[in-house]
Structures are given as C-alpha cells and as structure tokens.
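**User:** Hello, beginner here. Are you able to go through the protein record under this note? It all follows right here:
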Amino acid sequence: MSSQLEIFRGSAPAPASRQVMNGKQVFGRVAKTVINFESNFAHKLLCDGPTFSAGDACVYSCAFCYVPDLVRKLRAIPAFGHIEGRHEEIVIRRENAAGIARKQLAGRKDLQERRTIYASPLVDVAGNMELVRETVEICRVILELTKWDIRLLSKSNLLPKVAEGLVAGTGKEEVQGRVIFGVSTGTLDDGLAKAFEQGTPLVSKRIQSLHWLQDNGFRTYGMVCPSLPQRDYPKFAREMAAGIRADRCEHVWAEVINLRGESFSRTIKGLRGANLSWEAQALEKVSRDKLAWEEYARTTFWAQVGAVPAGKLRFLQYVTPASRAWWEGMAPRGAVVL
C-alpha cells in the first residue's frame, strides 16, 4: 500500500485548475455549502440526513442520471464563463470544497453523535485522481471534526485510492471503522454498461476494486442500480450477489430504473445505439405501461430477496397511491418505500 501514498502528500489542486477533466470542460463555481445536513437520502437509508457533494455536474455521463434534471437551473452559471454545452457535457465543481465543509461543521452540536454522512448525491467521488484527492481532503475534515461514519459511492475503480489516502492521513483502524465503500452497477456485463454509462470504468474493474476493499478489511456495501428488465431475473440476481460478494457487504441496495426527466429515452437510445435490441424493447415496454413497470419492479424485488442474504437487502421503490400498500407490506423483506 505504501507505494501508492505519495499522490496524497500536500494539498489537493485547486478545483478549477484544469480546463478539461475526463474530456469535459470544467467550471469552478463559488459555493456556500458542500454539506447538506437534512437531505432526503435519509429516506433511502443511505445516511442519517447529512450528505456532501463537491460539485454539481459529474465527470461521467450516465443516460439514466437524474442530476441534469435536478439542477438544471445551474446550467446558466457556466454560461457566464463561456462554457457551452448541456449540463451532462460539462463538469461543475465547487471551489475550496474541503474548506467550506470545515466551516459548515464548525460549532455544530451534533458532531459527537454517531451518524452517517453520504457522498455524493450529485457527482462521483472518485471519477479521476484529482477528485480522489478532493474526496480524501473532505473526508479527513469529517473524520477529524466528527464521530460520523462516511458512506461513499462511486462508479469508478478508484475507491481503493481513497482508502489509501485516508489511511495515510488518519490511520487504518479509524478508516476501517468509519468509512463504508460501495461501487454502483446494475449489470456485470461490461458491454451492456457501456451502452448507457459514458466515461465510466469497466464494470469488471469496479468489481475488482470492491473485492480489493473487502480483502483488505474495509467496510463495503452493494449498490445494484439501476437494473434493467431481465430475461431471467433470479439468475441475474444470483450473479449480481456473487459478483459483489453480497455476503461480505454490510447491506445491498437495489433499484430498477426510474423515470426521471429523460432517463428512459436516453437509456433506450443508448441501448439501440449499441445494437441491444431486446434490452431496448423491454425497457421501452415498461416505460410505456404502468402495469408492466410495476411487474418489472416486483419481479426484480423478489429476485433480489432470493439472492441477497437475509436482513441485508434495501430495495428502493418509488410507489404510486395504488402500489403503496403492497410495497409497505414488503418492508420486512427489505423494501424501502419512497
């Protein structure tokens, strides 16, 4: 591990120091906050309220991403910096993110409580080495000033670098006790993932990084999200559980793809562009038929119930008035009603 630690010496580069990141134009904006102390992610059981985000537009471009629709109003800000393109075609970072987090935490009365903070609702925490260093700096602040656990989620294979960077500055025992690492993927198929996740590392590389964290004693969790309609749902769930080593994860979150803005249309377009006709047609069918979508969600849920060790499943489900009672009845089996 020690051979990897040199990259974390010194302070992180200034957020706006690079004009291009992962092939995208970068805009650094002045922000007042990095931590959201009362986010809705508590309802997803990913945290106890607090989250942190060091940016507003990610280095990756996933077709199903909800962020462009969530923070579309921010698109006007980079325009003043003469940065053109859609929200998902640029990177927006918050300048001095670690410093802002420190100021936000100063003087709070709940810092010694055992809570969990989650990152990141908006951008990937480890999309490249510069972002890894930034995440390490923010996490060090949280580990220093609070007793909170930190839950990190990424579509990158660089979370082991985050772990190493934190160990270098904080100590292995502290990091292994308080930081929980998870990689997100709705498939184990590298080719399928490429159809709707632009710029992300191969799923196989992500899984390898998760295994490294598990093998080296770090806390991990699973995020099977978003999972598409399947030809064989039980087989899919069993393979995913084996791939992420669900027995070695503290919990496993799972979710079907949900309609957020243009998420369905973008994903279907990506699948068709990759000549994945069956997958595109299956997704198009459930996107147009509420009953078919509900059946797809319930079938996915039951498959995950059968594959994930008892007590670990947290299946996220957005409900309708008609479906709420059924899903609430499934809470003992792991359904999380949203």
